[in-house]
């Protein structure tokens, strides 16, 4: 009887030791707490949405850059605004300069043309079509040389000499003409615009010789 009690007591002690040992081992299949699960879900959402925000920011920045380099008035419209303001028909104007430039940080069109014996200069804002500056110069159409004893070449002959150098040009293509003296020498100075080229010349009024001649593209 005593032997049986000893066996049962030993078995009980062994079971207790075994249970104590199990209590020190980690629980592999333990489920995470609700706080831990929420933290994991929040991190996953942050990693998923962050790239989308960066992409949207990049696209917005690119769109803003594109808007800063575009204007609302093109070259043709700028010419129309200038001509209408000056009261000049497009068919009566010979445009010698029409280019895009800057006035400070503002883009402008610089437009220059001849019409009716006048030279016009305009600046038109690209972003609004506003006329920033305008003006014209009255060009002489021949000065009197009747009292100049040294003049042996008439105005008409001098013009024909100049036009003879520009095939196809006629007297209506002469946009500047004047009589002057250079160191006591009488001379005619003029400008012909024809076929996209501007010709500046000086003709000796005593000999009829062409003493200066320059040609430059106007477009």
List keywords for this structure.
alpha+beta; 4-stranded antiparallel sheet; 35% helix; 219 residues
Radius of gyration over all CA atoms, rounded: 46 Å
Per DSSP, the total helix count is: 4
Unreliable segments (pLDDT under 50, ≥5 consecutive)?
Answer: 24-28, 49-53, 55-70
Give the CA-based shape.
elongated
The SS-based structural class is alpha+beta
Termini, distance in Å? 129 Å
Q: Give the H and E element order.
A: HHHEEEEHEEEE
Helix content: 25-40%
Beta-strand proportion: 25-35%
- Number-wise, the strands total 8
Characterise the protein shown here.
By secondary structure, the chain is an alpha+beta fold. It is built from four helices and eight strands. The longest helix has 34 residues, at 34-67. It is elongated, with a radius of gyration of 46 Å. Mean pLDDT is 76; it is low at 24-28, 49-53 and 55-70.
Short description:
The chain is α+β, with helices and mostly antiparallel strands and 219 residues long.
Question: How would you summarize the topology of this molecule?
Answer:
Layout: H1 2-23, H2 34-67, H3 75-86, E1 94-103, E2 106-115, E3 118-125, E4 131-138, H4 155-163, E5 174-182, E6 185-194, E7 197-204, E8 210-217
């Amino acid at each position: 009887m005593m032997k049986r009690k000893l066996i049962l007591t030993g078995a009980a002690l062994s079971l207790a030791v075994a249970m104590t040992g199990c209590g020190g081992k980690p629980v592999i299949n333990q489920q995470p707490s609700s706080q831990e699960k929420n933290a994991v879900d929040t991190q996953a959402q942050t990693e998923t949405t962050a790239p989308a925000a960066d992409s949207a920011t990049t696209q917005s920045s690119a769109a803003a850059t594109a808007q800063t380099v575009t204007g609302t008035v093109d070259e043709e419209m700028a010419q129309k605004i200038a001509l209408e303001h000056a009261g000049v028909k497009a068919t009566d104007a010979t445009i010698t300069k029409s280019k895009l430039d800057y006035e400070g940080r503002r883009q402008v069109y610089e437009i220059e043309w001849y019409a009716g014996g006048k030279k016009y200069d305009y600046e038109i804002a690209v972003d609004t079509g506003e006329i920033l500056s305008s003006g014209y110069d009255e060009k002489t159409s021949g000065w009197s040389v009747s009292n100049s004893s040294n003049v042996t070449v008439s105005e008409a002959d001098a013009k024909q000499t100049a036009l003879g150098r520009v095939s196809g040009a006629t007297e209506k293509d002469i946009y500047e003409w004047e009589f002057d003296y250079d160191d006591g020498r009488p001379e005619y100075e003029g400008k012909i615009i024809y076929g996209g080229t501007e010709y500046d010349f000086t003709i000796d009024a005593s000999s009829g010789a062409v003493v200066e001649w320059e040609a430059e593209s106007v477009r």
